[in-house]
């Protein structure tokens, strides 16, 4: 049983995201979970260690380029991702050197459903040879899904740790989450 309030967790995540939008950093901030224990003597009580498989694997910083229509271009610009439209693809027009540079510059490519069939026509086989053919994105993909992934990961990690404690939730004094350079938000205690 989890004593973690989903409303409090959602509010804390929203506040962290708002803070990261207001003050841009030159690096990707991580979300950290800080746990304060009470009535737990590390000399007497057994020490615990374990590993938990998170439902949504966090990705390391990767350089992504979006090849998209107007909607996806706007969304990519809002997220600070590099993006290209069909006109930029036409300028490349199978120039192998430019395609190789493009493949080296980015770790992955995302492309709108409407543009996927046109990519081989303008870029040739270069991206496919590099193993970086664009992944399909649709207009139904939401940014809110990423927020849900963070919430599920936090809930899973907290519940796993609490299950390792001798008195379960009675050993937890406080739980905080924060971004690397952001403010601390209490989610329990």
Keywords:
three-stranded antiparallel β-sheet, Rossmann fold, 39% helix, 2 domains, alpha/beta, 189 residues, elongated
Ordered list of secondary-structure elements with their pairings:
Blueprint: H1 6-22, E1 31-37, E2 64-67, H2 70-79, E3 82-84, H3 86-92, H4 96-105, E4 108-112, H5 119-123, H6 126-129, E5 135-137, H7 144-164, E6 172-179, E7 185-188
Short description:
The protein has 189 residues and is of the alpha/beta class.
Characterise this structure.
- This protein is an alpha/beta fold.
- The protein folds into two domains: 6-48 and 165-188, no CATH class; 64-137, Rossmann fold (3-Layer(aba) Sandwich), CATH 3.40.50.
- 39% of the residues lie in helices and 18% in strands.
- The protein is built from seven helices and seven strands.
- The chain has helices at 6-22, 70-79, 86-92, 96-105, 119-123, 126-129, 144-164, and strands at 31-37, 64-67, 82-84, 108-112, 135-137, 172-179, 185-188.
- It has a four-stranded parallel β-sheet.
- It is elongated and about 70 Å long.
- The protein starts with 5 loop residues before the first helix and ends with a strand.
- 15% of the residues are buried.
- This is Ribosomal protein.
- One of its GO terms (cellular component) is large ribosomal subunit.
- Keywords: Ribonucleoprotein, Ribosomal protein.
- Belongs to the universal ribosomal protein uL1 family.
> From the alpha-carbon coordinates, what is the Rg to the nearest angstrom?
22 Å
Q: Unreliable segments (pLDDT under 50, ≥5 consecutive)? A: none
Order of strands side by side in the largest beta sheet? 3-2-4-5
Helix content: 25-40%
CATH superfamily of the largest domain: Ribosomal protein L1/L10, domain II
**How many structural domains are formed by the residues?**
2
Q: So what's the CATH class of the largest domain?
A: Alpha Beta
Strand content: 15-25%
User: What structural class should be given to the helix and strand makeup?
Assistant: alpha/beta
Terminal residue distance: 16 Å
Order of helices and strands: HEEHEHHEHHEHEE
CATH architecture field of the largest domain: 3-Layer(aba) Sandwich
Pfam families: Ribosomal_L1 (PF00687)
Family: Belongs to the universal ribosomal protein uL1 family.
GO molecular function: RNA binding; structural constituent of ribosome
Protein name: Ribosomal protein
């Amino acid at each position: 049983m989890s004593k973690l309030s989903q409303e409090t967790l959602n509010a804390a995540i929203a506040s962290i995201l708002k803070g990261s939008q207001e003050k841009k950093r030159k690096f990707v901030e991580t979300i950290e979970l800080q746990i304060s224990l009470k009535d737990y003597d590390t000399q007497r009580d057994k020490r615990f260690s374990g590993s938990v498989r998170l439902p949504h694997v966090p990705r390391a910083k990767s350089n992504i380029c979006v090849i998209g229509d107007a909607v996806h271009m706007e969304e990519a610009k809002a997220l600070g991702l590099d993006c290209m439209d069909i006109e930029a693809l036409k300028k490349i027009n199978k120039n192998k050197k430019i395609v190789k540079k493009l493949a080296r510059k980015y770790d992955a490519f995302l492309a709108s459903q409407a543009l996927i069939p046109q990519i081989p026509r303008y870029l040739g086989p270069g991206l496919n040879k590099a193993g970086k053919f664009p992944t399909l994105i649709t207009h139904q993909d939401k940014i809110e899904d990423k927020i849900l992934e963070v919430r599920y990961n936090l809930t899973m990690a907290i519940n796993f740790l609490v299950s390792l404690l001798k008195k379960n939730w009675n050993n937890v004094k406080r739980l905080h989450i924060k971004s690397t350079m952001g403010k601390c938000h209490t989610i329990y205690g």
